[in-house]
Amino acid sequence: MRIKIVDIPDEGLSISGQETIQPDSRAEGDPCWFPAPARYELEMNRVGTTVRVRGRVSVGVKCQCGRCLTEFPVPVASAVRLEFVPADSIAGSAPDSVHLLSGEEMNIAAYRNEEIDLADLVYEQVQLSLPMSPVCREDCRGLCPVCGANLNEAPCAGHADRGESPFSALAALMKPEPSHAKRSQSGPKKKKEQSHGKSQA
User: Fold this and answer.
1) What's the CA gap between 58 and 75, in Å, rounded?
2) Pairing of β 13-19 and β 38-47
3) Distance between first and last Cα of the chain
């Protein structure tokens, strides 16, 4: 949805609705995806060429735990406090209708073509609120490195406790044999029979 700057009245504009965010993000391999649209409630006020946007964006996100690979819900709610200004007033702004900056100007965004794209606004706010490394819980034990069992659900024959790894069998094969074992494999050495010459009568 796009809001024309000229359509924002002097007393401000209240707007609410839903926006679909990347419905195919799960197929792209992202750790988080959006099974339902995001909801927004915004107040927009115009002061000259600047548009102040205040409100809230919320969405139910699903993420895959980076340790045990379990899917779990993540409720995301983001407070919106943005100042939209014309793109040509920001040096080096991107050709998008929303251009979030960094540092002290993090709350400044740019609009182009005299309009604000709410889809871009909602997307940026949600992305800033997503966890960098999703974990289902702080004490998640992850997967057993040997059998792949989820250690949060049940033990896995003591692999994790013994500290076994997929390379343990290889290490056992490469371990040198004791010297006495090599001698036993070769078998006892036969004594040379010495012939003693006897005079025949």
Assistant:
1) 8
2) antiparallel
3) 127
